[in-house]
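Dear Dr. H.,

I hope your travels went smoothly. While you were away I took the liberty of generating a structure for the chain from your last submission, since the lab meeting agenda had it listed for discussion. I wanted you to have the full record in hand beforehand rather than looking at slides cold. The sequence, exactly as received, is reproduced here:
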Amino acid sequence: MLLNLPRDLETLINKRLSSGVYTDAEDVVRRALEARDAEERWTNEERPALSAHVEGCQQAERGDLIDGAEARPQSSVTAQCPVRRIREIWNSNNRDLWERALDCYWTFVGPSSVPLEEEMDRLDVAVVKAMSPEGWYLFLLEKYFRWKYTAPNRYATTTRSLKSYEGNNELRDLLAIRDRLLQ
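The corresponding predicted structure, in token form, is as follows:
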């Protein structure tokens, strides 16, 4: 399929390409469409969960709460993945505990998030270190923050702050932060 793009979209694609994050124009378009598709799927997948959350808040306001053990049905996932305090795992040298915690992590990843989770799991620090200022900015905006901030409101707030680096022409300052983190 051949597309005729307006000059502003062509400029945007070229900007993404110059970052070094994308391999070619098709990659830019593919990832943009995948991101949009994931966003739409998230909305459809999460709508029931959001409705349940709102109902839970309304129950709390009315004082209609039940005991936590009663509220958590014992599924095979919760039986295999008991809730643990992060401090218990973090301070442990028990390899088996760490591996079980990591295995359990994947049971909570929604289907639309799996590709990004897997990409972040395979992330090569050398690739991150080699990113241009624009590439680092785009990686944070389009990859890392989407991975880290799964709640739409947190993502929006954080990216608004991140975008100020681009808006103020301070991408080199952002790169300096990366360099300090990866020392």
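Two observations you may find useful: Confidence is low (pLDDT under 50) at residues 66-75. The first helix runs from residue 7 to 18.

With kind regards,
E. W.
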